[in-house]
Amino acid sequence: MWVSCGVHHASKTQLISDGSVVYAEGLWDHVTMDIQELGFKAGDAIEVIDATNKEWWWGRIMDSEGWFPASFVRLRVNQDEPMEQLSTHLEESQCGDEDGTDLGLLGPGLPCKEQMRANVINEIMTTERDYITHLKDICEGYIKQCRKRTDMFTEEQIRTIYGNIEEIYRFQKKFLKGLEKEFNKGQPHLSEIGCCFLEHQTDFQIYSEYCNNHPNACVQLSKLMKVNKYVYFFEACRLLQKMIDISLDGFLLTPVQKICKYPLQLAELLKYTNPQHRDYKDVEAALKAMKNVARMINERKRRLENIDKIAQWQSSIEDWEGEDVLVRSSELIFSGEISKLSQPQTKSQQRMFFLFDHQMVYCKKDLLRRDILYYKGRMNMDVMEVTDLEDGKEKDFNITVKNALKLWTRSGNEVHLLCTKKPEQKQRWLRAFADERKQVHNDRETGFSLTEVQKKQAMLNAFKSHPAGKSKAVTRPYCDFLLRQKHPSLPTALPQQQVFMLAEPKRKTTFWHNIGRLTPFKK
C-alpha cells in the first residue's frame, strides 16, 4: 500500500536513519531539470535514501541516483513487503469484497479506497499551495527585481521571458480559494473539488499563451545568460527570495508542467472515487475538461507554428494580389487540383485550390515550370454555400457535369462550378468544406485568433527568406511540400502520451518539436 508523501514524513525519516530500505512510487513523470536530479516515470519504484529536506528527496533507481520532488511520489506503508508483491497487494487492499465489508483499513476506521481518495485530495491541495508559493516567488523574486533594473531589462524583454505568468498567478490564487472552500479538513475523502475545475475550465486556457511563448522565453534567457552580469543578477534574485537551487529556466517550465499534471491528478482522484460519491460525476467531467484544455494547448501551438509556413507559401506565389492570407486565416484545411468554371465563362480551367479557414485561394500553374504558381483569385467561404451536384445536366451553366459541386452566394452574384476527376476526390472536397466550417465554429467558441504582431512577424520572416534579386522559384518552390502533402487532423481522443507531451520537454531544447508532426505543411 502507498500513502501520500507528506503523511508520515517523520516516521519515514526515522526508518531511513535506522537503516531501513524505504520505497516510494512515482505518481507522475518527473522530467529531469539537472544532471543531479533523478528522472522517473509514473509507477516507478524509487528507493528513498535521504528525506531530511521536506520538498526534495535523494533517491535511487537501479544505478541512478539524484534529487526528486517529494510531491511527485507517494510512500509505501509496508516497507518490508517484497516489491514484486506490490501490485497484487495493492489491488487486494483497494478492492476487497464486492459488498465492501472486507476492505482493508489504512486510517482510523476508513476503508482503503476512501483513505486513498483522502491522500489524493491532500496531494492536490498540497501541490496547489506549493505552486502558488512558486508563482509568488517568480513574480516577486524575479519580475519585481527585473522591473527595478531598467538599465538591464526593457518591459518587452520582461514580457518575453515571463509571458503572462502574473496573470496565471492571479488566477491560481482565485482557483486555490475555491478549492479551499470545498476542502473538508476533517474528512478529506468527503471533499467535492470536481466543481472547482469545471467552474474554471475556460480560465485555464490562459496557459495557452504561456506555453506558446515559452520557447521565446528560453531563447531570450539563453542570450542573456551568456553575459555574466545577468547570470549574477538572476542568482541574486533566487538567493534573496530563498528559492531552491534551480535555474530560472527550470522555474519557468513549471506552469507548462502544471497544466498537464491536472488531468493526471484528476484521473488518480477518479480512480479512488466511488461512483456513488457526490463528487464522482463532477470529477469525471473535470477530467474530460482538463484533457481538452491540454489538447487545445497542443492544437494552438501547432496552429501558431503553421502561420510561418502559410506566410512562406504565400511569398512563393507569383503576382499575389490583395490582402495577406494571414489577415483572415491561420489553417490550411485542404488543397488539390480541380477543374473550375465560373460565370460568365463557358470554358473550364485547371486550377490549384488551397482551402483555408474563411477563404479559398486558387492559382494557375506555370506551363513550363510546374512548381511555379500564379495567383488568380480567392473565394470568401464565410458567404459561400456548397452544393453536391448529381451527374448530368447543370441548369445554371447549361452543361453536362460529372463529379461536380457548386459554390455559390445567396445573393447570386457569384457562382463557381468545380469538377474533380474521380468521385472519391469530390467526397474528399465535400468533407474538407465541412471541416472548414467546423474549424471556424471551433475558433469562435474557443476565442482563437492571431495577433497583429504574430501576422506581421510571420510575413516579415517569409520575405527575409527570399533575398532581393533571387527568383522565388529557386529559393522556395511550393509544390514539393504542398502537392504531396497529407492533411492530418487531431483525432478526438489522443493517446495520453500525446495529449500530455507538454509535460515532457527536453532540457535546453525546443520542446514543441513533437507537435510539428501534426502540421499539414510538412514535406
From TrEMBL:
It is found in: Cytoplasm. InterPro entries: DBL_dom_sf, DH_dom, GDS_CDC24_CS, PH-like_dom_sf, PH_domain, SH3-like_dom_sf, SH3_domain, SOS1_NGEF_PH. Keywords: Coiled coil, Cytoplasm, Guanine-nucleotide releasing factor, SH3 domain. Residues 116-300 form the DH domain. One of its GO terms (cellular component) is cytoplasm. GO terms for biological process: intracellular signal transduction. Residues 280-307 form a coiled coil. CDD domains: PH_Collybistin_ASEF, RhoGEF, SH3_ASEF. The keyword Cytoplasm applies. Gene3D superfamilies: Dbl homology (DH) domain (1.20.900.10), Pleckstrin-homology domain (PH domain)/Phosphotyrosine-binding domain (PTB) (2.30.29.30), SH3 Domains (2.30.30.40). The keyword Coiled coil applies. It comes from the Eukaryota. Residues 331-438 form the PH domain. GO terms for molecular function: guanyl-nucleotide exchange factor activity. Pfam families: RhoGEF, SH3_1, SOS1_NGEF_PH. This is Rho guanine nucleotide exchange factor 4.
